[in-house]
Amino acid sequence: MPAKLSAIDTAKFVAAKRACEFVEDGMRVGLGTGSTAAWLVRCLGELVEDGLKITGVPTSIRTAELARDVGISVTTLDEAKWLDLTIDGADEYDPELNLIKGGGGALLQEKIVATASDRMIVIADRTKQVETLGAFPLPVEVIPFGWQTTKALLEETIAALDVMGDKVTLRMDGNAPYITDEGNHILDLHLGRIGNARQMALVLNQIPGVVENGLFIDICDIVVTGNGNGRVQVKDINNGSSSEDVIEFDEDENLFADLGD
Ligand SMILES: O=C[C@H](O)[C@H](O)[C@H](O)COP(=O)(O)O
């Protein structure tokens, strides 16, 4: 008998379940990465089992494996070419729905996939909502060659920008540097507060060795925020609308609880 969901998992689950309402038969859907996106993939898997026909474009090896496990037909972005919708988690979102992503190391594929979609929907629990981005360390994907030089250049660059902190750390996986699905490293920028996220996103990508940064500016259209009590808020930045629902779910849906991420 699976354990009852924690409040945080309930929040992620109801956000994912609400976001599934945007998915229609025949859509090509970008599938995000991370613990919240994993709920989405499981929920979509249930709908596929009930007859929904979609093609998923995963943003990581992990998501591709989970999507296949739950019966979603997956393809590559190059095959799909353009997507109707991408649904993904985030590490932070601000009132303009600008994001920090990449806490799980998948920012590069996530940004490419989201940018190749008509709409991007972020699913999140309330802890991801911030007034100003930057408390969550900003991930920057860099190529392994000369990464220490890239780190020094990043330190120099951020010192000249409107931020609170300036520490840059190499993300580790045990005793070795973390390796992304694209074979790169991640440098995490501990900025505290990013005064001008738009400027930062542009400037970081000018540094040789930087492949991409985790700031998603003007990419996200809708945020679905879940709460531990089953309530969800849907905010659409394009039409300024905001609505609230309660997601009813059967305790039996806790069948997902032991899947983890
Ligand atoms: O690289 C990972 C992604 O950007 C995730 O979507 C992000 O880190 C949020 O992950 P989670 O839903 O596990 O908090």
UniProtKB/TrEMBL annotation:
Pathway: Carbohydrate degradation; pentose phosphate pathway; D-ribose 5-phosphate from D-ribulose 5-phosphate (non-oxidative stage): step 1/1. It catalyses: aldehydo-D-ribose 5-phosphate = D-ribulose 5-phosphate. One of its GO terms (biological process) is pentose-phosphate shunt, non-oxidative branch. The active site is at E110. It comes from the Bacteria. One of its GO terms (molecular function) is ribose-5-phosphate isomerase activity. Substrate binds at T33, G34, S35, T36, D88, G89, A90, D91, K101, G102, G103, G104, K128. Its EC number is 5.3.1.6. Keywords: Isomerase. Catalyzes the reversible conversion of ribose-5-phosphate to ribulose 5-phosphate. Belongs to the ribose 5-phosphate isomerase family. Homodimer. This is Ribose-5-phosphate isomerase A. It comes from Palleronia abyssalis.
